[in-house]
Request: fold
Amino acid sequence: MKKPVATRLLPVALAMAGLALPLTAQAHRAWIVPAATALSSDNPWVTFDAAISNDIFHPDYHAMPLTHLTVTAPDGSAAEIQNAHTGKYRSTFDLNLTQRGTYKVSSAGSFVIAMWEENGERKRWRGDADGLKDAIPAGADNVRIIESARRLETYVTAGAPTLEVFTPTGKGLELVPVTHPNDLFAGEEATFQLLIDGEPAAAAEVEVIPGGMRYRNQQDEITASTDKQGRFSLTWPAAGMYWLSAELQDDKSSIPNASRRASYTGTFEVLPQ
Amino acid sequence: MRTLVSAALLLATASAGAAELSVSVDIPRLNVAEYHRPYVAIWLEPEQGAPTTLAVWYDIKLRDSEGEKWLKDMRQWWRRDGRGLSMPVDGVSGATRAVGTHTVSFQSGQAPLGELAPGNYTLLVEAAREVGGREVLSIPFTWPVTGAFSESVTGDTELGGVRLDITP
Reply:
């Protein structure tokens, strides 16, 4: 009965948001990985895998439900995925890039968690911000409220990279290019900006892990934290697929007396010179 | 061969006196089980400013423009210029070439070379082959030239010799 919090939350997170909740360092990692990110020809297709696992891009734990997945086309309109399938360990789908420019594939959501004690018993509630005020009974002790937003993204480009899909929504943690995510090359430095609820996300912790973990003995993670403008930079050590995860926790929630937690996770392809 | 091509171009464009830039690319014979002719891109990069694509050799005759799907495999060219172009480009797109030495010439003032501003440039030749490898070679030069300029480099895998001749 005394399981760690993250373990107890995980099934709920999977069911509601389609993602593991990055509450602890032990949380599983969610990812959407495209087979390619830079495409030529007028009408290219890209196939994707989406899963939740410890080993980056190695599906061996849980398929990622595709119910919350959205695709934004270069002109800002919504695009449809095709041939979606969810298997035991991974979901797959295809995307037809009918426009030239950069597409965003995204799964994002937000929720509120409240924890309190009632007559000495620990209680927990999860829902949206509107339901919060009716959730916690009068006389609850040690109330803790967490506003949580998570976002999982990747990007693919037909022809030259474009910026329209990076227009911030102002919700949760979002990535804005200084370097375009589909213009990354081994040995070069890339700079990105993170926004939290539309404002520069200062002091967010960023972790970047190269794919192919299964065939090495260390995580080989690169860590960074954002500056006052929400910016961070890193130099790509080699070509390959990378998993980038950023987290921010502070007390600047729009909900009174709540803490704010936000995560951004992206898959980035780095090409050889 | 080069002289013949140049002469033909000169007659066609009637721009006698314009400088000529001639690129010769050696596509090597490779001892491989499955051989496909390489895709080749030839382009110029100025120190500052936009690159100029001079030639792209690819499968231009495949149904549904299927050959364009693999243009991205010439990664350096794709990044520098290809991804912003709408293929095919007249006078730039061409069929893949067989094993052997192929020479293409370009006149200043004429497409696709156009008028080059004085400065330092790099000629780049990139080859990418289906079920094969990729190689990029480069030759730096300064424009304009006062006398005849000639420089060669030799590839290791997908390209043999690449030679640049400029006549003022």
